[in-house]
Amino acid sequence: MAVAGKSKKDVLQEFRSTEILEAARHVFALRGYHAATIDQIATHAGVAKGTVYLYFDSKRDLFLASLREGVLALHAEVAAQLRASPTPKSQLQAFINARFHYFSRNRDFFRIYYTEFPQLATVTGQPELQDLYEQQAQLLESVLADGIRSGHLRSCPVPSTARLVYDLIRSALAQHILNEPADNPHPEATVFNFIWKGISQS
Amino acid sequence: MAVAGKSKKDVLQEFRSTEILEAARHVFALRGYHAATIDQIATHAGVAKGTVYLYFDSKRDLFLASLREGVLALHAEVAAQLRASPTPKSQLQAFINARFHYFSRNRDFFRIYYTEFPQLATVTGQPELQDLYEQQAQLLESVLADGIRSGHLRSCPVPSTARLVYDLIRSALAQHILNEPADNPHPEATVFNFIWKGISQS
DNA sequence: CCGGGAATTGACCGCCCAGTCAGTCTCCTG
DNA sequence: CAGGAGACTGACTGGGCGGTCAATTCCCGG
Known about the structure:
The structure is a homodimer. With about 200 residues, chain A is an all-alpha fold. The first copy, chain A, has nine helices and no strands. The radius of gyration of chain A is 20 Å and the shape is elongated. In chain A, about 35% of the residues are buried. The N terminus of chain A is likely disordered. At the A-B interface, helix 6, helix 8 and helix 9 of A face helix 6, helix 8 and helix 9 of B.
C-alpha cells in the first residue's frame, strides 16, 4: 500500500511535469524564449502560474529541462539506429533518417532547437547544453573516424567535418520542418547525396 | 555656404549615427538582442540614452538598422567578387572567400548574424530581413543554375541546394570566427572542397 | 462526516528597462 | 554680444513579467 500510494503520487507528479514541459515546448516554439511568458505556459498546461514553480525553479530551468528532455530522447533514438547499422554509409543514412523522423514527430522541439541553440552556444556560456551538443557531435565523429579508418571515406579533419555535416543536416531539417509546402519528397535522400557525393560533376 | 553648412550638419549626423550603430553591433554581439540595453549601447557610443532615440525610433529599429547595414555591405562585396569570376568553380570560391574576408573583419556583425538570424527568420515574421536574406541566397542560386546549365555541376534542385550550401558556409564561418584557436589554416579551402567533392571516396 | 496535510491557486510585489521630455548646453547669426 | 534654434542630456515613468506566498481547495484516512 505504501508503495502503491507513493507510486500514485509519483504518477501524478510526473503527469503534471510532462504536461507543463509539453506546454513549455509549445509556447517557446511559438514565441521564442524571451517573448514566452510563464503565464502563457501555465494557461496552456491548464494550471496556474504558481504550479509551474512547484515543478521548476525558474523560467530558465523550465526551458533547459524541456530542451534536455528532447535532446536526450533524440540522442537515444539516433544512437539505437546507429548501433543497428554496419557500414559507414548506412550509419550516415541512419543518422540522417533518425533525426528526420524524430523531428518530424516533434516539430515544436525542432523550432526551439533550431532558433535558440546558436544563442545558447555562443552568448550564454551554458556548459550543460554544450555537453548534450557534444554527445551528438561525437556520434557523428565516430562514424567519420570509422569510415576513414576502414577506407570508405576520404581523409579529413574529423571534428570540423563532423560539425559541417551536422549543420548541413540541421539546415535540411529546417527546410523540411519549418516550411511545410511543396518540398522534394525525400529531403533526407537529397541531403545524404549531397554529403556523400558533393555537387561536382562525376 | 548653405551647401557647406548643410553638409557639415549631415556629416555630424552621419558620424553620430555610425558611432551608435557600431556600439549597437558591439553590445548586441556581446549580450544578444534581449540582454542588451539601450543604456549600454549609449554609454559605449559615448552619448546619452536620449540621443540614441534622436537617431533611431526604437531598440528594434536600431537592431534592424545595424543588421541591414552589415548585410548590404556584405552583399556588395560578395557581388563584386562574383562579377569578377568567370567559371562556376571560381564563383563558388569567390563567394566563400568574400564571406570569410568580410566576416573576419566584422566579427561582431557575424555574431549577431549567426545567433539572431534563426529567430528573426522563424519566430518574428520580418519581411524586410527575409528580403535581404533572399538576395544572398539568389546570388548562390544563380551560380548553381549557371553551373548546371554549363555542365560544370550535376543537376540538383537549385533552391534547396543553394540553402544547403549557404548554411554550410555559415557553419564553417561559425567555426572559424567564433572559436579563435588552432583551426586548420585554410578553412575556406576545406569548406570549398567539401562542397565541391563531397566526402565519399574517389 | 470530520480533520488535517498536501496540492493548487492567483493576486500581489518589485525589478528592470524601453521610451519620454523638460531642462541644459552649444554654437551660429545678425 | 545677445538671443534663439536645435542638439544633447539623464532623471523619470509606465508597463510587463518573473517569482512569491497567504488563502483556498482537494483528498484521504479514520
